[in-house]
Structure formats: structure tokens, C-alpha cells
Amino acid sequence: MTGEPIIQFTFAVDDPELDDDRRQKLAGRLLRELRDLDEVEKCARTEDLHPEEGSKPGIATLVGVLTAEVSVKNIKGFLEFLGDRLQDKPIKIQVKVGDRETKIEAKSRKELLEAERVAKELLTAMGKEGNV
């Protein structure tokens, strides 16, 4: 850990042409690559906080959804990596800093890089609240 604030990105490819199986395979490949990426502190499949009734607790994950934790200085590198891997696919991203979060839909690399600005705005807002 770097001691810097950590930004949490939860994301999934939002391509209606992909079935659940293909979405899981894409997420699995991406998960392996992200775990090896220096810019990423931690990456895992995203747990389903509201699993279907009767499913086993603690093992339910969302299909094709990953969560990565990235330090502030590595946001751009992480998003560029994601943009290179998913360049032609629409992506839904949830950016979370502390208890603040927002959602972004990106259909291009440029829109994906917008998540960096959003994360920094969330950090700034938290800093101002912490100084009050």
C-alpha cells in the first residue's frame, strides 16, 4: 500500500451482444491481467450484495463485474489499460472514494478517462468536508 487514498472502480462491459458466459470469460481474462498490473493495488470479482433467495452466502458474484482498487497516482495508467483492452465495448463504471460514489457510462476511451476527473473531484469533495 502506498499510503495514498485508494479509489475503488467497479466496472463491467455493458455489451448486449455478450451472453453471461462470454461476459464471465472476458472478466476472467481481464481479472488475471489486472492482478499482474502494477497500477492496481487489488482486484477481484464483485460480490453480489443482494443475492437471490436460497443462494449460498459469501460466494455469490455478479456476472462479468470486477472491482479494482487503485491509488490516486495510478488512476490514469489503470484507465488507459482498461481502455486499451475494452476499446470497442461500452463500459459501466462505479467510482467510489470513501463513502462517496458516482456512476459513469463510457463508450469510448476518452469517456473512460473521464473517470479520472470524477475520482479526483470526489477526493477533493471529501477533503473539503474533512477540513470543516
Features:
Alpha-Beta Plaits; 3 helices; 132 residues; five-stranded antiparallel β-sheet; alpha+beta
Set down the secondary structure blueprint:
Elements: E1 6-13, H1 20-36, E2 40-47, E3 61-71, H2 75-85, E4 91-97, E5 100-106, H3 109-130
Antiparallel strand pairs: 1-3, 1-4, 2-3, 4-5
Kindly summarize this structure in a few lines:
By secondary structure, the chain is an alpha+beta fold. Helix content is 38%, strand content 31%.
Give the DSSP E fraction (strand runs of 2 or more residues): 25-35%
CATH class: Alpha Beta
Please give the CATH architecture: 2-Layer Sandwich
Number of domains: 1
Number of strands: 5
Task: Give the SSE order as H and E letters.
Answer: EHEEHEEH
Q: What is CATH's topology name? A: Alpha-Beta Plaits
Rounded Rg: 15 Å
Terminus-to-terminus distance? 27 Å
User: Strand order across the biggest sheet?
Assistant: 2-3-1-4-5
Largest sheet: 5 strands, antiparallel
Provide mean pLDDT, rounded.
84
Number of helices: 3
Oligomer class: single chain
Low-confidence stretches: none
Shape: globular
Overall description:
With 132 residues, this protein is of the alpha+beta class. It has one domain (6-49, 59-130): Alpha-Beta Plaits (2-Layer Sandwich), CATH 3.30.70. Helices cover 38% and strands 31% of the residues. It contains 3 helices and 5 strands, in the order βαββαββα. The two termini are 27 Å apart.
